[in-house]
Structure formats: structure tokens, C-alpha cells
Known about the structure:
The structure holds two protein chains of two kinds.
Chain A: E1 3-14, E2 17-28, E3 32-36, H1 43-51, E4 58-63, H2 72-75, E5 78-81, H3 93-103, H4 109-118, H5 132-145, E6 150-154, H6 162-179, E7 182-187, H7 191-194, E8 199-204, E9 207-213, H8 214-219, E10 221-227, E11 238-244, E12 248-254, E13 265-268, H9 271-280
Parallel strand pairs in A: 3-7, 3-8, 5-6, 6-7
Antiparallel strand pairs in A: 1-2, 1-4, 8-9, 10-12, 10-13, 11-12
Helix pairs in contact in A: 3-5, 4-5
Chain B: H1 2-41, H2 43-49, H3 54-64, H4 68-97, H5 100-103, H6 110-145, H7 160-179, H8 182-207, E1 213-218, E2 231-238, E3 244-245, H9 247-253, H10 260-268, E4 272-278, H11 283-310
Helix pairs in contact in B: 1-4, 1-6, 4-6, 4-7, 4-8, 6-7, 7-8, 7-11, 8-11
Amino acid sequence: MTAVLEATGLGKRYRRTWALRDCSVAIPQGRVVALVGPNGAGKTTLLHLATGLLAPSVGEIRVFGAPPANRPSVLARIGFLAQDKPLYHSFTVAEMLRYGARLNPGWDDAIAIRWLERFDIPPDRRIGQLSGGQRTQVAVALTLAKRPHLLLLDEPMADLDPLVRHDLARLLMETVAAEGLTVVVSSHVLAELATICDYLVLLAVGRVQLAGDTEALLAGHKLLIGPRRDPATVGPHQVVAASHTDRQTILLIRTVGPVHDPAWAVHDVGLEQLVLAYMRHPETTALARPTLTAVPPDATEVSL
Amino acid sequence: MTWVAWRQQRASTVAAVVLLAVAGPILLVSGWQMTSFARDSGLAACVASGGDCQLLAEAFGNRYRSLLEPVWLLGALLPVALGLLFGGPLLAREFEQGTHRLAWTQSVTRSRWLGARLALAAGVLVVVSAVAALLLTWWYGRFDQLGISGRAALERGSLVPVATAVLAFSIATAAGALTRRVVPALAAGLVAVLVVGLALNLAAQQWLPPRPLTITYPAGSPSPRAGLGDQVLSSGYRDRTGRDLSAQVLDRLCPGTAGQAVDRCLAANGIQRVDRYQPASRAWQLGLAQSALYLVVGALFLVLAWWRTLRPD
């Protein structure tokens, strides 16, 4: 499968601080990618680099095989929903659609109109008179009617109430499934993405901490529960997080082959549990498969 | 893109039309009043017959001279206001509301987007400020017809208000690209327009063609060019040998501030007065030179705005 979005050694620095550093990811076509990380991890920076709004300080980003900045052929295939859902407040909804139609060769008015009808947004209303949630829907309509091949959504659910949030997620996924789009959705709340994504990119303080197919990630991690002991004794596996009670030790590990030791009860992990464990240990990365047998020494004692 | 640029320009255009709708009638009504006064008092007929109209002209002047200052101020400020109105929000509002992220992720290049927005705004601005310039020219023409030079002819309409508006527009646009906020862009733009405008006027007087003429005549007597509407740029005094005299030397020679005694003293000492001036007939040439200078400097500010906006962050 070809990569729709490919970053190599990508970094972005604002004056002295790095917002994103040494980021290498390849996002395969047709996936729904959850871009997850705590606030300030660099999610927005990565999306802005992918749309060409920002220029990389180091490294390279390619979207559909070319740097996206200022390239209409690439921009036409990207649907970007910025975090603050910028729209012209003095425009009416209909004028906002006309704006999209005038600036995008692949524009399909029917898509936008259908979307707005679903959410009961009157086309003659000014953007400034709409609620925050309605504005989000207009912004989404504008993004979808462009008929993009790659959707980049920066915190799309943030200002929606739970019901609309659910509707939007479902509708987005229907659209995505029908069109075969690649989607990258950022969020600091994994729960809203867990059911819809099949690929995960986890950012921590400007670095990619974890990236891959969710199924494969879940299959490659196990929760071990056994009598209390030193985490270093689990063999070749990488300990992501460890916690201890008086008598028990609970480990979340990244497996290297099967776990043979019968002392451990081996459990599957959930996506949210996995992400939280990594988020609590931002220094643990799981990018390349470790070939060494030594156990990373960095598993600190924090409850899972 | 044209529709987009126009839709974003609409509010400023409406505001500009409102400004003109306020200023226009003031000029038109006072202009018509002057015309009818000149006709009714017989001044117009007198000037047409080529007679001595001194008294009638004075009556006219007494009645309407007080309008000159406010109209001059209007003529100076209206183009600046129009330029700021069009340029200040052009980029600053996009950055302030984050809509540049919307605009720059559609399927057009930033340069096409910016080019279209600037071209349309500048185009509308030229039309609107040309209307203002025509109104002002017509208004000053009421004075000219009667052979009364209200003010130095150089202040009259012509191209200068249009060029002033474009200069103010360019500066405000650049300020918007740099500050990325509407109010600071307008404030910085206003200050910059005043400073740059003043500097350019001084520079134009110092270096731009056509160079001023000089006339030398006996001090204490009226200038042979009095009443021709010249713009006198500077005056000085020379003694018989052609040496320039400083104010202190003159003061020692002929003490006192002014008046016939001083004039007689100056004449008795053979002091000559030297005026550097631009004749009224050069109004168009000077206006063209000044406008060209404004437009060149305006273009530089637009280059700055262009560079700052297109440079990726």
C-alpha cells in the first residue's frame, strides 16, 4: 500500500522550542488514523505541516508524493478542518459554499447542501449568527464538498455536544467508507476515536511515540499479571508500564514473541488502556521493533 | 477568485461610499453656492469682461475663504482614510480570525489569492478616490474660474489624492501583514502614512523635478509675481554683492519686526529678496511627480506585504 502522507525526520521549531521533532510516519491509503497525544504534543503542528500552512524546520513531508505547500494540485486533494473552524462571519452560509465552489475545481455543491440539510442549517443565515456547533458543521461541509482524497481533521468534535458528536462521527465514517478516503483525525480524547479508527499515531512532546495499525498494536501488547517480582525478569519483552501491589506485579509489555513463563497470567489490552500507558510514559517509544534482548530500563512504577 | 475578492471587499466599499456620500454633498452644495454668489453679485460677469473686479472678488473671498482650510484638510485626509479603510483589514482580519488557514488550504496558490485580493481592493480604491479627487478639483475650480487663487494651485485635486490613497492602502496592508491584528494595523498604518507622507513631501521638494524657480527683487517692495498663485517654498535676502544675509545680520542692519520703516531701510541698503517658488502653471507636472513618488514607495510597501504573507511560517 502506498503512503498518502509521509514524513521523514520532520521537525518544526518555533524560536527555541521544538513543537515537533524527528517525526517519521507513513500513513497508508484508505486508513482512518487517530492522531492522539496530550495538549501541546504537536498534533496541530503536524497537520499544519501536512497542509503546507507551516514549513518544516528540518526534514520533509510529502502528501501524495509532493511537498504540499502552495501546490494547488496537492491542496485540491486535501480537505483540512482547522481546529478553530475559521469561517467568514459576515458571509451567509450560502456565500460560504459559493466561496468553496469558486476556490476548488473539484467542488460538489450537492455534498455540502446535503450535509447542511442533515443538521438543519439555513443557507441564508449569517455565519456569525450560528452556534459553535453549527459553524463546525458548515466547516465540515466545506471540507467534504471539496471532494478530498485525504481528510485532515484537527479536533473536529471539540465544540459539539455528545449527541451531535456521535452523529458526526457516524456520518463522517459513512462518507469515508463510500469514498475510500484517507482520514487523519486528531484528538486528545481517544475515546471519541476508538470506534472509528484503524490506525494510530501517538505523539508525545513533539515526537512520535507509537504508530501503526491498531489491530497489530493491540496484538503486539499484553497485560501480564503475576506474583510480585522485578519487571526486568520478563525476558525479551519491552516493558511499557509496571505497577506493583504487595503481592502482585502488573506489567504492560510490548511482546517479542510469545510469553512462555507460566507464572504470568496473560491478558489482551484495550486501545485506550494502551494509549494511556504510553501517554504516562512519554519517554517510552515503540517505533522500530527492538532486536536486542535487553529490557529498556525506563519502566517506572506507575499504576496502569 | 474575483467573486471571493469582491465579497471580502464589499463592506469596506460600502463604508467608502458612505464617506463619499457625506463629503460629496458638502463640497457640491458649497460649490454651487459659490457659483451662484459669483453670478448674483456680478463677479462672474466682471471677470468674464476682463474688468477690475477687486471689490467684488474681496466680497467673495471674505464670504468663502473660511471654507478653504476645512476643504484642504478634507482633501488631505479623505484619501488617507480610504486607503486605511481598504488596506488595514485586508490581511489583518484574515490573520486575526484565522481565516487565512481556510483560504490557504483551498485549491489556489497563496500568490493567486493575494494577487486577486490586492488587485481588486486597489482597483476599487482607485475608482473611489478618483471620485473624491474629481470632487475636490471641481470645488477648487470655483475659485480658479474667478481668478482668485484660494490656495497654492498645487494643493488642488489632480492625481495626488488617488496616489495618496494608494500609498496609504499599501502601508496599511503591510502593517496588517506584520501586526496581524486589525486595530494595531490601522494605528500603525495611520502613523506610518503621516510620517512617510511628510518625508516624501520634503524629499519631493528637495530633489524631484521640476526644480523650483527663483526670482530676485528689491526687498521691501511687493513681489512681481504676487497674486499669480505661486507656491513660495523659501525666501532669503542678499546684499548688493550677492552675498546671502542671515536673519541676525538683517536684524542688526534694520532693527524692528516689519512695517514701512523696515522696508525703507532694506531698500536704502540695496537689499534684494530671493524667492524660490513653483509657478501655478506647473501644478500638473508637480502633481505627476509627487504621485509617481507615492506610487513607487507604495509599491515597495506592497512588496513587503507580499513577502511577509507568502513566506511560509
